[in-house]
Specification:
209 residues; mainly alpha; Tetracycline Repressor, domain 2; two-stranded antiparallel ribbon; 2 strands; elongated
Length: 209
């Protein structure tokens, strides 16, 4: 996105990077949820007045959809370079499950707990058709990325030829969603990894060659 020129409430010209601003607003929604976030919260996070927020991004619901799109575009299911093909399949899959939140963080910056998408689904499903449609569309993007992950594993001979990438992707999605919910409730990262390793061991043990 190009740099956007705005005007402060005092009438002074200002400028900000919309991509950086959207990332900061995504973190606010991720931490507080949609209902717990006000436009004032978003303005404080970005450091610009309401008119500039509305003019650049639209209303709060529209900003949420854009934040979800940004989140999905950066997850490892979307970006194949995070699959680390030099690692064994089991390690790659555990990292893929565990790294969704960390991959979105600038170096040294802690991220909110859980998965932003899952958090939004649990809060928002059935409230807004526009957000529900965005969730369906973006969840499919992540699912398609995971399906490609398993299809590649079959092509590389890491899984038996009869393995079903679509079904495996769905199973990982269900597990990851549940893991995100319990992480939000305080599950430690160490325990989450132990559960992920156990799940991956079972899944690949059933689908190995």
């Amino acid at each position: 996105m190009p740099e956007v020129k705005g005007e402060s409430m005092a009438g002074r010209k200002l400028s900000f990077d919309p991509s950086t601003a959207l990332h900061q607003m995504m973190l606010v929604f991720w931490e507080k949820g949609f209902n717990g976030t006000s436009i004032d919260d978003l303005c404080r996070a970005v450091g610009v007045p309401k008119p500039s927020i509305y003019a650049t991004f639209g209303d709060k619901e529209t900003i949420l959809v854009q934040a979800l799109e940004l989140y999905t575009s950066r997850t490892p299911q979307k970006n194949s370079e995070t699959w680390r093909l030099d690692l064994p399949l089991r390690e790659r899959l555990v990292e893929l499950i565990m790294e969704t939140d960390r991959c979105l963080a600038p170096a040294g910056q802690a991220m909110p707990t859980g998965c932003f998408m899952v958090n939004t689904i649990t809060e928002f499903t059935g409230v807004s058709e526009r957000v529900d449609e965005a969730i369906r569309r973006l969840t499919k993007v992540s699912g398609d990325g995971m399906e490609r992950f398993f299809a590649l594993a079959v092509e590389r001979g890491e899984l038996r030829k009869g393995a079903n990438p679509k079904m495996l992707a769905a199973q990982v999605g269900i597990f990851s969603g549940g893991l995100s919910v319990v992480k939000k409730k305080g599950l430690s990262r160490k325990k989450a990894r132990e559960l992920a390793e156990e799940f991956v061991g079972y899944l690949l043990g059933a689908e190995g060659k």
